[in-house]
Amino acid sequence: MHKPAREIEKSLSTVGYRLTRPRRAVIKVLVQARRSLSLDEILIRARKLEPRIGLATVYRTLEMLTAEGHLEEVRTRTKRYMLACSNFSLHFHLVCERCQTVTELPSTPETQSLTAALQMRNFEPCGSAVEILGLCERCRNRGASETKPVHLRSSPPHVSEIPHNQSGLSKK
Amino acid sequence: MHKPAREIEKSLSTVGYRLTRPRRAVIKVLVQARRSLSLDEILIRARKLEPRIGLATVYRTLEMLTAEGHLEEVRTRTKRYMLACSNFSLHFHLVCERCQTVTELPSTPETQSLTAALQMRNFEPCGSAVEILGLCERCRNRGASETKPVHLRSSPPHVSEIPHNQSGLSKK
DNA sequence: AGCTTATTGAGAATTTTTCTCAATAAGCAT
DNA sequence: ATGCTTATTGAGAAAAATTCTCAATAAGCT
Ligand SMILES: [Mn+2]
Ligand SMILES: [Mn+2]
Ligand SMILES: [Zn+2]
Ligand SMILES: [Zn+2]
Fold it and tell me: B87-154 — its CATH code?
Protein backbone atom coordinates (compact mmCIF):
# COMPACT_ATOMS: atom_id res chain seq x y z
CA MET A 1 0.00 0.00 0.00
CA HIS A 2 0.90 3.64 0.10
CA LYS A 3 3.28 5.23 2.48
CA PRO A 4 1.81 7.44 5.18
CA ALA A 5 2.44 11.16 4.99
CA ARG A 6 4.90 10.97 7.82
CA GLU A 7 7.11 8.59 5.95
CA ILE A 8 7.11 10.63 2.78
CA GLU A 9 8.01 13.71 4.75
CA LYS A 10 10.86 12.03 6.49
CA SER A 11 12.17 10.74 3.21
CA LEU A 12 12.10 14.22 1.74
CA SER A 13 13.88 15.93 4.55
CA THR A 14 16.48 13.19 4.56
CA VAL A 15 17.30 14.01 0.97
CA GLY A 16 17.56 17.64 1.86
CA TYR A 17 14.21 19.15 1.05
CA ARG A 18 12.71 21.54 3.54
CA LEU A 19 9.46 20.50 5.08
CA THR A 20 7.28 23.49 4.40
CA ARG A 21 3.64 24.02 5.16
CA PRO A 22 2.63 24.15 1.50
CA ARG A 23 4.44 20.91 0.80
CA ARG A 24 2.89 19.21 3.78
CA ALA A 25 -0.51 20.36 2.63
CA VAL A 26 -0.08 18.88 -0.83
CA ILE A 27 1.18 15.64 0.59
CA LYS A 28 -1.71 15.43 3.01
CA VAL A 29 -4.19 16.02 0.24
CA LEU A 30 -2.71 13.25 -1.85
CA VAL A 31 -2.52 10.81 1.01
CA GLN A 32 -6.08 11.42 2.06
CA ALA A 33 -7.48 11.14 -1.42
CA ARG A 34 -7.94 7.51 -2.17
CA ARG A 35 -7.70 8.12 -5.87
CA SER A 36 -5.90 10.13 -8.51
CA LEU A 37 -6.49 13.84 -8.54
CA SER A 38 -6.28 16.55 -11.13
CA LEU A 39 -4.31 19.68 -10.51
CA ASP A 40 -7.47 21.59 -9.88
CA GLU A 41 -8.62 19.16 -7.29
CA ILE A 42 -5.28 19.21 -5.56
CA LEU A 43 -5.12 22.97 -5.54
CA ILE A 44 -8.59 23.38 -4.11
CA ARG A 45 -8.07 20.83 -1.40
CA ALA A 46 -4.66 22.14 -0.52
CA ARG A 47 -6.06 25.61 -0.10
CA LYS A 48 -8.43 24.35 2.52
CA LEU A 49 -5.39 23.40 4.54
CA GLU A 50 -3.11 26.20 3.41
CA PRO A 51 -5.23 29.00 1.98
CA ARG A 52 -2.37 31.03 0.58
CA ILE A 53 -0.68 28.25 -1.33
CA GLY A 54 0.06 29.30 -4.88
CA LEU A 55 -0.53 27.56 -8.16
CA ALA A 56 3.14 27.43 -9.05
CA THR A 57 3.98 25.90 -5.73
CA VAL A 58 1.56 23.09 -6.28
CA TYR A 59 3.06 22.39 -9.68
CA ARG A 60 6.55 22.51 -8.25
CA THR A 61 5.68 20.23 -5.39
CA LEU A 62 4.02 17.70 -7.64
CA GLU A 63 7.01 17.72 -9.93
CA MET A 64 9.32 17.20 -7.00
CA LEU A 65 7.26 14.45 -5.43
CA THR A 66 7.09 12.65 -8.74
CA ALA A 67 10.81 12.95 -9.27
CA GLU A 68 11.39 11.57 -5.81
CA GLY A 69 9.21 8.60 -6.57
CA HIS A 70 6.42 9.41 -4.18
CA LEU A 71 3.88 10.15 -6.85
CA GLU A 72 2.82 8.58 -10.09
CA GLU A 73 1.85 10.85 -12.89
CA VAL A 74 -1.07 9.74 -14.98
CA ARG A 75 -1.36 11.31 -18.38
CA THR A 76 -4.86 11.60 -19.64
CA ARG A 77 -6.01 14.68 -21.40
CA THR A 78 -4.39 16.55 -18.57
CA LYS A 79 -2.12 15.06 -15.99
CA ARG A 80 -3.34 13.56 -12.77
CA TYR A 81 -1.45 12.52 -9.71
CA MET A 82 -1.71 9.71 -7.24
CA LEU A 83 0.45 8.21 -4.57
CA ALA A 84 2.98 5.77 -5.87
CA CYS A 85 2.42 2.26 -4.71
CA SER A 86 5.21 0.76 -2.70
CA ASN A 87 5.14 -2.00 -5.26
CA PHE A 88 8.16 -0.62 -6.98
CA SER A 89 8.41 -2.97 -9.90
CA LEU A 90 6.87 -2.14 -13.21
CA HIS A 91 3.13 -2.53 -13.11
CA PHE A 92 0.04 -1.42 -14.96
CA HIS A 93 -2.60 1.22 -14.58
CA LEU A 94 -5.95 0.96 -16.22
CA VAL A 95 -6.97 4.54 -16.73
CA CYS A 96 -10.59 5.28 -17.56
CA GLU A 97 -10.75 8.23 -19.88
CA ARG A 98 -14.35 8.83 -18.98
CA CYS A 99 -14.40 8.86 -15.20
CA GLN A 100 -10.66 9.17 -14.69
CA THR A 101 -10.54 6.22 -12.38
CA VAL A 102 -7.18 4.51 -12.15
CA THR A 103 -7.16 0.81 -11.40
CA GLU A 104 -4.05 -1.13 -10.60
CA LEU A 105 -3.45 -4.28 -12.56
CA PRO A 106 -1.83 -6.67 -10.12
CA SER A 107 1.44 -8.24 -11.09
CA THR A 108 0.90 -11.61 -12.69
CA PRO A 109 3.09 -13.99 -14.67
CA GLU A 110 1.87 -12.28 -17.83
CA THR A 111 2.82 -8.80 -16.77
CA GLN A 112 6.13 -10.16 -15.54
CA SER A 113 7.06 -11.54 -18.90
CA LEU A 114 6.20 -8.28 -20.53
CA THR A 115 8.64 -6.61 -18.22
CA ALA A 116 11.22 -9.11 -19.34
CA ALA A 117 10.51 -8.22 -22.95
CA LEU A 118 11.33 -4.62 -22.21
CA GLN A 119 14.62 -5.49 -20.59
CA MET A 120 15.49 -7.63 -23.56
CA ARG A 121 15.19 -4.54 -25.68
CA ASN A 122 17.18 -2.40 -23.33
CA PHE A 123 14.22 -0.16 -22.90
CA GLU A 124 14.10 1.43 -19.51
CA PRO A 125 10.59 2.41 -18.54
CA CYS A 126 10.45 5.62 -16.60
CA GLY A 127 8.05 5.71 -13.81
CA SER A 128 6.97 2.39 -12.47
CA ALA A 129 3.62 2.21 -14.13
CA VAL A 130 2.48 1.61 -17.65
CA GLU A 131 -0.76 3.35 -18.40
CA ILE A 132 -3.45 1.74 -20.42
CA LEU A 133 -6.09 4.23 -21.41
CA GLY A 134 -9.60 3.09 -22.06
CA LEU A 135 -13.04 2.72 -20.60
CA CYS A 136 -13.71 1.06 -17.28
CA GLU A 137 -16.53 -1.42 -17.01
CA ARG A 138 -18.98 1.02 -15.52
CA CYS A 139 -18.43 3.76 -18.06
CA ARG A 140 -18.39 1.27 -20.84
CA ASN A 141 -21.85 -0.01 -20.03
CA ARG A 142 -23.83 3.17 -19.74
CA GLY A 143 -21.71 4.64 -22.49
CA ALA A 144 -23.70 3.39 -25.43
CA SER A 145 -24.95 6.89 -26.04
CA GLU A 146 -22.27 9.53 -26.09
CA THR A 147 -19.69 7.03 -27.15
CA LYS A 148 -18.95 7.41 -30.80
CA PRO A 149 -19.86 10.63 -32.56
CA VAL A 150 -20.06 9.85 -36.22
CA HIS A 151 -18.33 12.90 -37.51
CA LEU A 152 -16.94 13.79 -34.13
CA ARG A 153 -16.91 17.56 -33.62
CA SER A 154 -18.53 16.95 -30.29
CA SER A 155 -15.85 15.30 -28.18
CA PRO A 156 -15.59 16.81 -24.65
CA PRO A 157 -16.93 15.81 -21.25
CA HIS A 158 -19.51 13.43 -20.02
CA VAL A 159 -20.15 14.74 -16.62
CA SER A 160 -21.02 18.38 -16.82
CA GLU A 161 -21.43 21.35 -19.06
CA ILE A 162 -19.08 23.44 -17.00
CA PRO A 163 -16.61 25.32 -19.21
CA HIS A 164 -14.02 22.65 -18.48
CA ASN A 165 -12.00 24.49 -15.98
CA GLN A 166 -13.32 22.76 -12.92
CA SER A 167 -12.50 25.73 -10.77
CA GLY A 168 -10.73 28.98 -10.31
CA LEU A 169 -7.59 28.40 -12.25
CA SER A 170 -7.84 30.06 -15.60
CA LYS A 171 -6.37 33.39 -16.31
CA LYS A 172 -8.68 35.81 -14.65
CA MET B 1 2.71 -2.03 -42.41
CA HIS B 2 1.03 1.27 -42.89
CA LYS B 3 -1.62 2.02 -45.40
CA PRO B 4 -0.68 4.18 -48.34
CA ALA B 5 -2.14 7.66 -48.55
CA ARG B 6 -4.45 6.61 -51.34
CA GLU B 7 -6.07 3.99 -49.18
CA ILE B 8 -6.58 6.31 -46.24
CA GLU B 9 -8.14 8.87 -48.51
CA LYS B 10 -10.50 6.40 -50.05
CA SER B 11 -11.53 5.19 -46.63
CA LEU B 12 -12.27 8.73 -45.54
CA SER B 13 -14.39 9.66 -48.49
CA THR B 14 -16.26 6.42 -48.16
CA VAL B 15 -17.29 7.40 -44.67
CA GLY B 16 -18.38 10.77 -45.94
CA TYR B 17 -15.48 13.09 -45.35
CA ARG B 18 -14.54 15.46 -48.11
CA LEU B 19 -11.12 15.06 -49.58
CA THR B 20 -9.70 18.52 -49.25
CA ARG B 21 -6.28 19.80 -50.11
CA PRO B 22 -5.37 20.57 -46.49
CA ARG B 23 -6.38 17.09 -45.45
CA ARG B 24 -4.44 15.48 -48.24
CA ALA B 25 -1.41 17.51 -47.25
CA VAL B 26 -1.54 16.35 -43.65
CA ILE B 27 -2.01 12.77 -44.68
CA LYS B 28 0.89 12.97 -47.10
CA VAL B 29 3.13 14.42 -44.44
CA LEU B 30 2.31 11.62 -42.06
CA VAL B 31 2.72 8.91 -44.61
CA GLN B 32 6.06 10.21 -45.78
CA ALA B 33 7.44 10.65 -42.31
CA ARG B 34 8.72 7.33 -41.17
CA ARG B 35 8.30 8.26 -37.55
CA SER B 36 6.03 10.06 -35.12
CA LEU B 37 5.75 13.81 -35.49
CA SER B 38 4.88 16.64 -33.21
CA LEU B 39 2.25 19.15 -34.15
CA ASP B 40 4.91 21.68 -35.01
CA GLU B 41 6.60 19.29 -37.34
CA ILE B 42 3.38 18.40 -39.03
CA LEU B 43 2.35 22.00 -39.46
CA ILE B 44 5.65 23.03 -40.96
CA ARG B 45 5.77 20.16 -43.39
CA ALA B 46 2.16 20.53 -44.35
CA ARG B 47 2.74 24.17 -45.15
CA LYS B 48 5.36 23.20 -47.66
CA LEU B 49 2.64 21.38 -49.52
CA GLU B 50 -0.23 23.67 -48.67
CA PRO B 51 1.15 27.04 -47.60
CA ARG B 52 -2.12 28.49 -46.40
CA ILE B 53 -3.15 25.61 -44.19
CA GLY B 54 -4.18 26.84 -40.76
CA LEU B 55 -3.24 25.65 -37.32
CA ALA B 56 -6.79 24.77 -36.37
CA THR B 57 -7.20 22.73 -39.50
CA VAL B 58 -4.20 20.64 -38.67
CA TYR B 59 -5.54 20.00 -35.21
CA ARG B 60 -8.92 19.14 -36.59
CA THR B 61 -7.52 16.83 -39.19
CA LEU B 62 -5.35 15.01 -36.70
CA GLU B 63 -8.29 14.59 -34.40
CA MET B 64 -10.38 13.25 -37.21
CA LEU B 65 -7.73 10.88 -38.51
CA THR B 66 -7.21 9.54 -35.02
CA ALA B 67 -10.90 9.04 -34.48
CA GLU B 68 -11.09 7.18 -37.77
CA GLY B 69 -8.29 4.89 -36.72
CA HIS B 70 -5.73 6.06 -39.19
CA LEU B 71 -3.47 7.65 -36.65
CA GLU B 72 -2.15 6.72 -33.28
CA GLU B 73 -1.75 9.44 -30.76
CA VAL B 74 1.32 9.26 -28.60
CA ARG B 75 1.21 11.24 -25.40
CA THR B 76 4.53 12.42 -24.21
CA ARG B 77 4.96 15.86 -22.81
CA THR B 78 3.00 16.99 -25.79
CA LYS B 79 1.15 14.78 -28.17
CA ARG B 80 2.71 13.24 -31.23
CA TYR B 81 1.12 11.46 -34.13
CA MET B 82 2.05 8.54 -36.28
CA LEU B 83 0.32 6.32 -38.75
CA ALA B 84 -1.61 3.53 -37.18
CA CYS B 85 -0.28 0.12 -37.96
CA SER B 86 -2.65 -2.15 -39.79
CA ASN B 87 -2.05 -4.51 -36.90
CA PHE B 88 -5.32 -3.64 -35.33
CA SER B 89 -5.12 -5.68 -32.16
CA LEU B 90 -3.84 -4.18 -28.97
CA HIS B 91 -0.10 -3.75 -29.07
CA PHE B 92 2.64 -1.80 -27.38
CA HIS B 93 4.65 1.30 -28.08
CA LEU B 94 7.96 1.93 -26.44
CA VAL B 95 8.17 5.69 -26.35
CA CYS B 96 11.52 7.28 -25.63
CA GLU B 97 11.02 10.42 -23.63
CA ARG B 98 14.42 11.69 -24.63
CA CYS B 99 14.50 11.33 -28.39
CA GLN B 100 10.78 10.76 -28.90
CA THR B 101 11.34 7.62 -30.89
CA VAL B 102 8.45 5.21 -30.91
CA THR B 103 9.23 1.54 -31.24
CA GLU B 104 6.63 -1.11 -31.78
CA LEU B 105 6.70 -4.09 -29.50
CA PRO B 106 5.63 -7.00 -31.67
CA SER B 107 2.78 -9.12 -30.49
CA THR B 108 3.99 -12.12 -28.54
CA PRO B 109 2.32 -14.69 -26.32
CA GLU B 110 3.11 -12.46 -23.36
CA THR B 111 1.48 -9.38 -24.78
CA GLN B 112 -1.45 -11.54 -25.82
CA SER B 113 -2.11 -12.73 -22.33
CA LEU B 114 -1.98 -9.21 -21.05
CA THR B 115 -4.71 -8.35 -23.49
CA ALA B 116 -6.70 -11.21 -22.08
CA ALA B 117 -6.23 -9.82 -18.59
CA LEU B 118 -7.79 -6.58 -19.71
CA GLN B 119 -10.79 -8.31 -21.19
CA MET B 120 -11.22 -10.24 -17.99
CA ARG B 121 -11.60 -6.96 -16.20
CA ASN B 122 -13.99 -5.57 -18.75
CA PHE B 123 -11.58 -2.79 -19.44
CA GLU B 124 -11.76 -1.59 -23.00
CA PRO B 125 -8.54 0.01 -24.10
CA CYS B 126 -9.08 2.95 -26.38
CA GLY B 127 -6.72 3.24 -29.21
CA SER B 128 -4.93 0.12 -30.21
CA ALA B 129 -1.63 0.85 -28.57
CA VAL B 130 -0.44 0.89 -25.02
CA GLU B 131 2.34 3.34 -24.51
CA ILE B 132 5.29 2.60 -22.35
CA LEU B 133 7.32 5.69 -21.66
CA GLY B 134 10.98 5.41 -20.92
CA LEU B 135 14.44 5.63 -22.37
CA CYS B 136 15.49 3.82 -25.50
CA GLU B 137 18.77 2.00 -25.53
CA ARG B 138 20.68 4.73 -27.29
CA CYS B 139 19.52 7.55 -25.05
CA ARG B 140 19.97 5.41 -22.03
CA ASN B 141 23.64 4.82 -22.74
CA ARG B 142 24.90 8.28 -23.39
CA GLY B 143 22.49 9.54 -20.77
CA ALA B 144 24.68 9.05 -17.74
CA SER B 145 25.14 12.78 -17.51
CA GLU B 146 21.97 14.77 -17.75
CA THR B 147 19.94 11.93 -16.39
CA LYS B 148 19.07 12.57 -12.79
CA PRO B 149 19.23 16.07 -11.36
CA VAL B 150 19.56 15.73 -7.61
CA HIS B 151 17.14 18.42 -6.61
CA LEU B 152 15.65 18.74 -10.05
CA ARG B 153 14.79 22.34 -10.80
CA SER B 154 16.68 21.80 -13.99
CA SER B 155 14.56 19.34 -15.91
CA PRO B 156 13.95 20.36 -19.56
CA PRO B 157 15.47 19.35 -22.86
CA HIS B 158 18.46 17.43 -23.95
CA VAL B 159 18.81 18.49 -27.48
CA SER B 160 18.89 22.23 -27.72
CA GLU B 161 18.58 25.45 -25.84
CA ILE B 162 15.88 26.71 -28.10
CA PRO B 163 12.96 28.19 -26.11
CA HIS B 164 11.03 25.00 -26.64
CA ASN B 165 8.77 26.05 -29.35
CA GLN B 166 10.50 24.31 -32.18
CA SER B 167 9.13 26.78 -34.65
CA GLY B 168 6.69 29.46 -35.54
CA LEU B 169 3.67 28.45 -33.58
CA SER B 170 3.42 30.49 -30.45
CA LYS B 171 1.15 33.42 -30.17
CA LYS B 172 2.83 36.09 -32.22
C1' DA C 1 17.45 34.97 18.36
C1' DG C 2 20.09 35.30 14.05
C1' DC C 3 21.81 33.61 9.48
C1' DT C 4 21.64 31.46 5.25
C1' DT C 5 19.32 30.31 1.44
C1' DA C 6 15.74 27.04 -0.24
C1' DT C 7 11.16 27.93 -1.11
C1' DT C 8 7.06 30.61 -1.74
C1' DG C 9 3.27 33.58 -3.84
C1' DA C 10 1.60 36.57 -7.30
C1' DG C 11 1.42 37.62 -11.57
C1' DA C 12 3.19 37.62 -16.07
C1' DA C 13 4.50 34.95 -19.83
C1' DT C 14 4.62 30.67 -22.62
C1' DT C 15 2.88 26.93 -24.65
C1' DT C 16 -0.79 24.07 -26.21
C1' DT C 17 -5.44 23.40 -27.57
C1' DT C 18 -10.04 24.87 -28.72
C1' DC C 19 -13.51 27.92 -30.45
C1' DT C 20 -15.92 31.42 -33.63
C1' DC C 21 -17.53 32.80 -37.85
C1' DA C 22 -17.37 34.58 -42.40
C1' DA C 23 -15.33 32.84 -46.67
C1' DT C 24 -14.24 28.88 -49.47
C1' DA C 25 -14.45 24.83 -52.10
C1' DA C 26 -15.76 19.47 -52.37
C1' DG C 27 -19.08 16.56 -54.01
C1' DC C 28 -23.16 16.06 -56.30
C1' DA C 29 -26.82 17.27 -59.49
C1' DT C 30 -28.01 19.51 -63.22
C1' DA D 1 -19.02 22.84 -67.48
C1' DT D 2 -22.27 25.38 -64.06
C1' DG D 3 -24.57 25.90 -60.04
C1' DC D 4 -26.05 24.31 -55.12
C1' DT D 5 -25.53 22.80 -50.74
C1' DT D 6 -23.00 22.62 -46.89
C1' DA D 7 -18.77 20.48 -44.90
C1' DT D 8 -14.55 22.50 -44.21
C1' DT D 9 -11.21 26.13 -43.92
C1' DG D 10 -8.26 30.12 -42.18
C1' DA D 11 -7.43 33.78 -39.08
C1' DG D 12 -7.66 35.32 -34.98
C1' DA D 13 -9.44 35.30 -30.44
C1' DA D 14 -9.97 32.70 -26.43
C1' DA D 15 -9.33 29.15 -23.24
C1' DA D 16 -6.59 25.94 -20.81
C1' DA D 17 -2.34 24.19 -19.01
C1' DT D 18 2.25 24.94 -17.61
C1' DT D 19 6.36 27.52 -16.64
C1' DC D 20 8.98 31.50 -15.33
C1' DT D 21 10.49 35.81 -12.57
C1' DC D 22 11.70 37.90 -8.53
C1' DA D 23 11.08 40.08 -4.21
C1' DA D 24 9.48 38.37 0.24
C1' DT D 25 9.28 34.59 3.46
C1' DA D 26 10.39 31.01 6.53
C1' DA D 27 12.99 26.13 7.28
C1' DG D 28 16.75 24.31 9.31
C1' DC D 29 20.91 25.09 11.56
C1' DT D 30 23.90 27.74 14.90
MN1 LIG E 1 0.65 2.28 -9.42
MN1 LIG F 1 1.33 1.02 -33.30
ZN1 LIG G 1 -14.81 4.97 -16.02
ZN1 LIG H 1 15.74 7.75 -27.17
Answer: 3.30.1490.190
